[in-house]
Specification:
By secondary structure, this protein is of the alpha/beta class. It has six helices and five strands. It is elongated.
Length: 198
C-alpha cells in the first residue's frame, strides 16, 4: 500500500474516491498537515472548488515544507506532490489565475474521480523528476564552488611561488595527497593561510 495523506472536507470523507483509491493500492490517511512526510502525495478533496476554497488551499500550503533549493523559481515548490480533487467548480477569472499560481507550486487539479489515480501518479512522477533535478543542480553548484576555490588557491600559489598554472595545480595536488586531504580542503587551507608560508 502506498501512503496518501488526505485533507478532506468533512462531507467528503465517505465519498466514492476513498474506497476506490484503497482498491488501487493507496492507503488514504487523514493526518494533520504538520505531521506529513515529504514525498508522499497529499489529496485535497472538495465538493466545490471556488475562489474562496482555492485561497484556503493556498493559505494552508504556505505552512507546508517546500523544496530545499537555491533555485529562485523553485523555492516555492512544495516538498510533496499535492492533488486537489473536486466535484464541481465555480469558475471565475480570479480562480483561473490562482489555479495557475498553485500549479507553479506543484498542485495538480482533478475534477473526475475516475482520473484521480492517473493524476496522483503523474504528480508523483513530476515531483520525483523535479526533486532529482534539484539535487543534481545542488551538486553542480557545489562542484562549481569547489572549482572556483581551487582556481583561486592556484592563482595565489602562482603569485607567491612564481609557478605556472600547471605547476601550481600539480603542487597543490601533491601536497593534498601528502596530507591525506581532498584538493578542495587543501585549497581552502591554502587560502586561509595569511602568512604566505606553504
Amino acid at each position: 500500500m502506498k501512503p496518501l495523506w488526505c485533507y478532506a472536507d468533512k462531507d467528503q470523507i465517505d465519498q466514492a474516491w476513498y474506497p476506490m483509491l484503497k482498491r488501487q493500492g493507496w492507503q488514504p490517511q487523514s493526518i494533520p498537515p504538520e505531521t506529513m512526510q515529504s514525498d508522499h502525495p497529499v489529496l485535497w478533496t472538495l465538493s466545490l472548488l471556488d475562489l474562496d476554497e482555492a485561497v484556503r488551499l493556498e493559505n494552508t500550503i504556505r505552512t507546508w515544507p517546500c523544496l530545499d533549493t537555491a533555485h529562485e523559481s523553485l523555492s516555492d515548490h512544495l516538498a510533496m506532490p499535492v492533488v486537489c480533487l473536486y466535484a464541481t467548480e465555480k469558475r471565475s477569472h480570479g480562480l483561473v489565475t490562482l489555479k495557475e499560481t498553485l500549479r507553479d507550486k506543484g498542485v495538480f487539479f482533478c475534477s473526475d474521480v475516475e482520473d484521480v489515480e492517473g493524476v496522483l501518479l503523474e504528480a508523483e512522477t513530476v515531483h520525483k523528476k523535479l526533486k532529482r533535478l534539484v539535487q543534481e543542480n545542488t551538486q553542480l553548484r557545489e562542484k562549481l564552488q569547489q572549482r572556483a576555490l581551487i582556481e583561486q588557491a592556484k592563482g595565489r600559489l602562482m603569485q607567491m611561488k612564481n609557478l605556472s598554472e600547471n605547476e601550481a595545480y600539480h603542487w597543490m595536488r601533491r601536497q593534498a595527497m601528502n596530507e591525506g586531504q581532498k584538493l578542495v580542503v587543501f585549497a581552502q587551507k591554502l587560502l586561509n593561510n595569511s602568512s604566505g608560508q606553504f
